């Protein structure tokens, strides 16, 4: 017998209702783009933990368990050090914390590039061990065969073109892409190739705006922009960037909150009360009857 949870809709702070059939689905996400037009843009944010997923779920269409977690929560120098086990642990937490959004999990560097077979072995582990609806992987034409292999075998794939952070060593940094004619042609060709291969959506990251607009018009599946254009079919940001957790962020980030200051000020208040012995107070201590 399974436990039934009730969602507290007033605060949405209760445990999520485990109702997988009520989740938005990959086909429904694709259907949001009709005859090349997306009336209401798709909303996507990253989530790495169950609690953050609970808080974001009702506001989003998709939640991305991004390999950016390497930098954002593990303090690693890049996304290259992120492992499959890390993605699976955080992916499962985000699926447990959400009931509405489509959860997409990044395939980490080194777990999909060697062959379609390697990608399938690792993507199927992600799907089976997390309950997520899709995986995301970086790359264009070079990944088309793999994207086709996975999508034909029941694993929806979100592609990622333009500035692909796992290729930071080849690209020479996190500069925006598409500032030369050759790069522009490559990004358009990559986007078309992954869409033709069966990607259900394409993240376009860090590209000159005109390229993002042209690619959005050129392919039938939704484009999700980050450092791209408001004309993309949806947008994604790293949640901690959006919340204002970091002082230094890429140009494409808009800080909607100032959470770093809230955390620092709150910790300072706690530290002060511990030091002057005003915490714990009457309300926080146990008394005998
Ligand atoms: N917190 C966080 N947010 C992200 O968006 C993110 C990560 N981490 N980790 C993985 C990758 C790395 N990303 C990055 C990192 C740096 C820039 C950046 O600073 N770019 C310059 C480009 C300047 C230019 O080309 O003119 C910038 O100033 O935006 C961009 C994307 C995006 N991803
Ligand atoms: C920035 C987004 C698109 C991403 O790939 C990540 O969070 O890793």
TrEMBL record:
Pathway linked to the protein: Cofactor biosynthesis; (R)-pantothenate biosynthesis; (R)-pantoate from 3-methyl-2-oxobutanoate: step 1/2
E.C. code: 2.1.2.11
Domain of life (superkingdom): Bacteria
GO biological process terms held by the UniProt record: pantothenate biosynthetic process
Class of this enzyme: transferase
Segments for region (Disordered): 1-21
Keyword Metal-binding applies: yes
Cofactor note: Binds 1 Mg(2+) ion per subunit.
Keyword Magnesium: yes
Described purpose of this protein according to its UniProt entry: Catalyzes the reversible reaction in which hydroxymethyl group from 5,10-methylenetetrahydrofolate is transferred onto alpha-ketoisovalerate to form ketopantoate.
Quaternary structure note: Homodecamer; pentamer of dimers.
Protein name stated in the entry: 3-methyl-2-oxobutanoate hydroxymethyltransferase
Gene: panB
